[in-house]
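dumping this here so i dont lose it
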């Protein structure tokens, strides 16, 4: 279930156009960053980003702003490889 457009809008504003991931990707040579906040930036129009559910819907997460994380495709692939 995707986030409503207004939630994505607010989350994107919060991100400042920069990936909000600060996970530790240590051990993954293909990760865009190892720790601290990911340096990847993007613009809303041109993509390269994903509105990610911090807690997935299946695990009880919702479509709230708090549960929405704007992250780059590189980080998304790392945490949610499908
Ligand atoms: Zn990232
Ligand atoms: Zn990351």
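and the seq i came up w/
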């Amino acid at each position: 279930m995707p986030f409503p457009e207004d939630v994505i809008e607010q989350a994107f504003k919060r991100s400042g156009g920069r990936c909000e991931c600060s996970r530790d990707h240590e051990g993954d040579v293909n990760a865009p960053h190892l720790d601290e906040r990911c340096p990847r930036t993007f613009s809303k129009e041109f993509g390269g980003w994903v509105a990610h559910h911090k807690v997935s819907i299946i695990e009880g997460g919702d479509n709230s702003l708090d549960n929405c994380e704007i992250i780059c495709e590189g980080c998304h692939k790392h945490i949610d490889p499908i």
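The pocket of zinc ion (ligand 1) is lined by residues 19, 21, 32, 38, 40, 71-72, 74-75 (CB under 6 Å).
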